[in-house]
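Data availability (excerpt). All sequences and predicted token strings are deposited with the supplementary files. A representative entry, histidine kinase, is shown inline so that the format can be inspected without opening the archive.
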Amino acid sequence: MKLRRLSLSTVTAMTIAAMISLTMFIAYFSFFWIMKRVTEVRLLELPADAAQAYRDIQAGVTPPFESFQKLMLLMPEFEKSLDNELNWTFGGHILFAAIVCSAIGFLLARRIARPLKRLVSAAEALREGDFAIGLGDFRGGTSEVQRLGKTIDALASDLDHMQKRLRFNTMAVAHELRTPLTILQGNLQGMIDGVFPIREQGLQDLLMQVQGLSRLVEDLRTLSLAAGHKLIAVRSPTDLAVEARTVLAAARPLLDEAGVQLETDLCTAPTNVDPERLRQAMLALVHNACRYASTGGVLRCETGVDKDGSAFVRFLDRGPGLPQEIRSISFDVFWRGETSRSRATGGTGLGLSIVEAIAKAHDGRLQTGNRQDGGAAIMIVIPPQPR
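Structure token line:
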């Protein structure tokens, strides 16, 4: 069983206490050794009988009177020289002990600070844009340094993922804009040059391309608001069943055109949300079903409340279902249910990304999966709001 790594404050306090204790230990034992050693050296300078009288007094033995009398005459000068030498010698030993303890403390401080240098290098690499930097299995340092290392490693991983996703999204935006812009430019230039006649059908085709661009720009704006946590304007008490009826009634022509039969089981689902954004999310799911699941011929919408009090709206279809590789991850921007990137179905590829962003903006989640008897099941879950 591994001991819990100590905190920086604990390690610092223990290091300081250890250095102070070591200094006092050296000073205490040095004092008696120095005093005994210096005294013996100074006694060699006294007459033998006076020196023996001093030793007898220290041992608690009464010396001869003549020796004691001679010692008393020499004592003032002896004590003065002894005190001076003791002060200098003891001071030197204390200075030596302080230097030794400082050296030990410096080595310990370097050992404590060594992992911080690695973290500083990693932070500088992140500042310079090297998001691929990784600390791997970071070891060493106190508990705070360990947590900081894990945080920097996670930050580097997130930034690297964001950079790759931004690069992909930029290329995807360019791809999505290139085709309609090329069509618009070619047709308009042809009309100006007189190559193409100005016909109503031709203008309607160009207008359709412009409308597709408008949808793409609006979808990108929605995702931008979601990234800035500004997607939701005002929450209000809302019944998801009422909102679902409104959306399904508005989408009836679209369902009829796609040949999709609608089934409903709308139970009361009170919650506190931005109703406009929830209608946008539900409409996006209806559009998604009409584009990619119309072969199933049936779309079922359900609303209700889970056991934990979460309100939900669920769409079930009989289409081909969702690919296995994307059911357990977040939907990437410009992801489409079809394998190709063709715009034949008229979508921007942002639908499910927007639905997921709206769900997360309400502290909820988007659940996706495939039904056992075929088709996809997509559900928006809104947790109960604290009172």
